[in-house]
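[job 4471] stage=fold_predict status=RUNNING
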Amino acid sequence: MRTPRWALRALGRGFAAYLRLVRRTSRMTLDPPDLFDRLEPDWPFVCALWHGQHFMIPLGKRPQDRYAVLISRSDDGEINAAACEAFDIRPVRASGGDPRKMRKRGGVYGLREMLRALEQGDSVTLTADIPKRARVAGLGIVTLARLSGRPIYPCTVVSNRRVTLGNWDRTTVALPFGRLVLAVGEPVRVARDADEAALERARLAVQAGLDEVHARAYGILGLADPGARLRDAA
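[job 4471] inference complete, writing structure tokens
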């Protein structure tokens, strides 16, 4: 028996309230310190995350920032969507990953909606790695960048006080009264006429950029990235 939609959305709103508590009771460090000034000329952009950090990213949103986020059509996705809406982040309900398999999972619709969001001035957030293959970037995110002409910024929010689950992507959830780091890496730009070889180079650049930004953010806290070796275990 499936959980009723209203119950899932109530869980999402409750989680959003918890995240607000975390944000109010935690000290945030920006890396680089002029992070938002650097992002402004490239707005709207594509914000790339690793799976496992997706619960944390609303902590880095300012009230004036306009975002859409790609969220799966699963029950877990319903919870995430309700939480994001509480932060004024517009959910796009579809799946990313391999463009060749998008049609089966509503990905064509998702790609179209993300392109529309970028055209309307909303930055778009999505996980870069292939589902169930942690820390392995897929072609979906670089395809979005090629079609939209918008840059990809590797992003993360990490905490020194957190719960890290033992699942495939080492999902982390921050605890209150800690230190947070919002970090952004160098942009990856994909030409509109990029061929397969260029898309593969961009995919690897996104992968390396996300690895670097996570290592840097955790390093500021004096910690090691709990997901750093997941690619080797895949």
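[job 4471] summary: The chain has one domain: 5-233.
[job 4471] exit 0
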